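Hi all, posting the design record for the shared folder.

TITLE: backbone redesign
STEP: 1 of 1
STRUCTURE INPUT:
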């Protein structure tokens, strides 16, 4: 998938500035097509409104939308180049003009520079023909947009839920967890340590923050299942939130975990909150909210209402990639760093070879080190690439993985791209434009 297609939505803003360039507007007024350019701007605005939907439908493999975006991309580049053609032609005419004529010209392109030579006349005809051709292509794109039933910005939230939704996590720990002894100890102290009554709130939130794939969920699973935590709290619950912060679903999941004797089918949020408040009354509890993206303070405060009935010392662990989540929770973030090189090698060897080292596979160790370095200390990337090499001992197969790009890996075995896409769609629009610009370069 061309990156230019994927990030086209960030490119159209540049076109609006280009269409307002002095060179193009001067030509348009002189040729009587300034009204046409204004119509173009309105058409591009209507296209811009549906690009979020188009972008995500392309990510889901909609070939019709992909073709539409390719046509739009090609037209956008042609429109962007229009002012440059005027500047180039103007420079050629300037270089051939007499000195006295140059002094008399203003910064805008005067009509005389096009009117006084056969070359300029031919340029006029060529540009008018090109603009008419672009107008036809733009009209076709508008017709296709309506045919594809692309939704506008008010559908973006529902689109989020359709893009490569990650697997829901559970509280069960990873089968092989290494090199987080210090982090685990620190989180356990935050959970079970006694605090000064003057500084300790009744309900404490502990956000574990880090980039996608760094191991936040794995660390939370470890502390959740630790015997010290089980002995310290009266009740525990785990809820995977992901990008859909549904208050009803989250509350129901927590209530089902802490009290599975009731039937919750068809119950509304008020009923669920009352029952959860009643069940947690006076209990010291731990709740883990895994993979939270919510930045809405109102939703957060509503979710926490029934938890206020718990006993002092109750805790909520939130795993998130987003520092804003910690700010909304009014909590000090615990930032999780990447794994060390040695830990990465051990983890990679376990998932690729079934053992914790390369003692019996010295011929693969150098290739393994290069692959591990490529993963930049992220357990998710290590596990994904190692899984593709599971019990394969041919150096040629290891070299193939080393030299592959993430998007070239088998889709059914690739957990990395969904994690990256989720991070991308949650970027604010200005950072998405910045990311799209950087993505042009290999």
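Okay, here is what came back for every position:
SEQUENCE:
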């Amino acid at each position: 998938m061309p990156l230019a297609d994927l990030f086209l939505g960030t490119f159209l803003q540049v076109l609006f500035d280009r269409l307002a360039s002095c060179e193009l507007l001067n030509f348009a007024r002189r040729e009587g097509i300034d009204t046409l350019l204004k119509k173009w701007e309105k058409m591009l605005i209507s296209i811009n409104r549906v690009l979020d939907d188009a972008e995500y439908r392309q990510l889901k493999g909609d070939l019709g939308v992909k073709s539409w975006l390719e046509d739009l991309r090609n037209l956008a580049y042609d429109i962007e180049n229009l002012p440059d053609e005027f500047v180039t032609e103007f420079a050629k005419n300037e270089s051939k003009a007499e000195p006295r004529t140059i002094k008399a010209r203003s910064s805008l392109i005067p009509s005389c520079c096009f009117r006084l030579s056969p070359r300029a006349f031919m340029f006029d005809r060529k540009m008018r023909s090109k603009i008419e051709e672009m107008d036809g292509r733009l009209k076709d794109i508008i017709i296709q947009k309506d045919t594809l039933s692309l939704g506008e910005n008010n559908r973006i939230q529902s689109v989020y839920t359709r893009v490569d939704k990650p697997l829901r996590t559970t509280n069960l720990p990873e089968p092989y967890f290494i090199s987080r002894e210090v982090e685990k100890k620190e989180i356990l102290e935050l959970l079970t340590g006694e605090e000064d009554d003057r500084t300790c709130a009744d309900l404490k939130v502990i956000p574990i923050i880090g980039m996608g794939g760094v191991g936040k969920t794995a660390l939370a699973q470890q502390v959740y299942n630790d015997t010290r935590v089980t002995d310290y709290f009266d009740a525990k619950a785990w809820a995977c939130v992901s990008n859909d912060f549904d208050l009803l679903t989250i509350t129901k999941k927590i209530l089902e975990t802490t009290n599975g004797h009731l039937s919750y089918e068809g119950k509304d949020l008020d009923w669920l909150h009352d029952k959860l408040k009643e069940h947690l009354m006076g209990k010291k509890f731990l709740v883990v909210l895994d993979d939270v993206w919510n930045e809405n303070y109102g939703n957060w405060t509503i979710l926490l209402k029934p938890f206020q009935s718990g006993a002092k010392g109750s805790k909520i662990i939130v795993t998130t990639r987003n520092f804003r989540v910690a700010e909304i929770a009014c909590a000090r973030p615990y930032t999780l760093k990447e794994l060390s090189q040695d830990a990465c090698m051990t983890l990679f060897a376990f998932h690729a070879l079934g053992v914790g080292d390369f003692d019996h596979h010295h011929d693969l160790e150098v290739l393994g080190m290069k692959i591990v370095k490529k993963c930049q200390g992220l357990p998710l990337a290590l596990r994904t690439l190692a899984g593709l090499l599971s019990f394969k001992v041919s150096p040629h197969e290891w070299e193939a993985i080393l030299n592959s790009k993430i998007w070239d890996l088998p889709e059914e075995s690739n957990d990395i791209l969904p994690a990256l896409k989720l991070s991308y769609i949650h970027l604010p629009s200005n950072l998405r434009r910045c990311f799209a610009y950087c993505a042009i370069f290999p």
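COMMENT: The beta strands are 203-209, 235-242, 285-292, 314-320, 334-335.
Let me know if anyone wants the other runs.
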